[in-house]
Design goal:
By secondary structure, this protein is an alpha+beta fold. Helices cover 47% and strands 15% of the residues. The protein is built from eight helices and five strands, in the order H-H-E-E-E-E-E-H-H-H-H-H-H.
Length: 192
């Protein structure tokens, strides 16, 4: 057990018992434990395999390469349509976790095997994402903006594309592009 991760569990106000049981199950697989992205993360030979996290209505195990798992019980959940690799195993309470311990352990074991295999999730390329008309127009009209946008890392570009495209109205998409322009010109991502 890792002391920095211990502090995470001690500070948890919600899901404390659920987190503790999930931690026991995951550590039983022989994975090492670290705190990453503010969450308990479990690794095989330095590679992220699964993390524990909580939300308002559920707590979950997030399998980093869940899209490659067989999911024979049909229990894995894709958080949103834009999540390409990770999948969650969700729980609403401790009894649900206790009743599913064998399933959880088998999913963790499978996730470790996926990691050991070296397989990688085939991700959608940035060029395959929809580019809103408003962004295309801005890129055409402003060469400095276009150069700055194209210089962003693919991940930052995808973040902006998803953010801009998620607005339903053209006016909102344009406003988001305008609001992000200084960040893009500075070479920063949406959350930098």
């Amino acid at each position: 057990m890792n002391r920095s991760v211990d502090r995470f569990f001690q500070k948890a106000e919600k899901w404390r018992d659920e987190f503790a049981r999930l931690r026991e199950i995951v550590l039983g697989s022989g994975l090492s434990e670290e705190l990453k992205w503010g969450q308990p993360c479990y690794l095989h030979q330095g590679r992220n395999v699964v993390l524990i996290h909580g939300f308002k209505d559920y707590c979950a195990l997030l399998f980093m390469k869940g899209a490659l798992m067989k999911d024979q019980a049909g229990a894995l959940v894709q958080q949103t349509e834009n999540v390409q690799s990770a999948r969650q195993l969700r729980f609403a309470g401790l009894p649900e976790i206790v009743n599913a311990e064998a399933l959880i352990a088998s999913y963790v074991a499978e996730a470790v095997e996926v990691e050991k295999s070296g397989r990688k999730v085939q991700r959608k390329e940035t060029a395959q994402f929809d580019v809103p008309e408003e962004l295309l127009q801005r890129l055409d009209e402003d060469p400095a903006f276009k150069t700055a946008f194209e210089a962003l890392t693919p991940g930052r570009q995808r973040g902006y594309l998803l953010h801009f495209a998620s607005a339903k109205q053209a006016r909102t998409r344009s406003a988001r592009i305008e609001k992000a322009a200084d960040r893009i010109l500075a070479g920063k991502g949406l959350d930098d």
